[in-house]
Amino acid sequence: MSQASQPSASEDVWVQLFALLAVVSGILSAHYYWQRPLPPAAAGVSAPQAAGASPAEPAAAPAPQAAASVPRTAGRWVVDPRMGPDADCAGLGEALAGSRDGDVIVLRPGTYEESVDISKSVTISGSGVSPDQVMITNASRQTLSIIAGRVALENLSLSNTGLKSCWALTVAKARLSLRNVRLRSGGQGVLVADGDLDASDCELDARTALFVSGKSRVTLLHTTLTAEETAVSADGGGVDLRIDSSRIQDSRGTGLEAARFALVRLNDVTLSGNASAAMVIRSRAEVRVTRAKIVDNRECGVRIEDHGKAYLEQAQVARNRCGVGFTGPGTLEARNCQFSELALGAVAVKPGLEKSVEIRGYGNVGLKIPGERKNAED
Question: What local confidence, expressed as pLDDT, does residue 165 receive?
Answer without folding.
Answer: 87
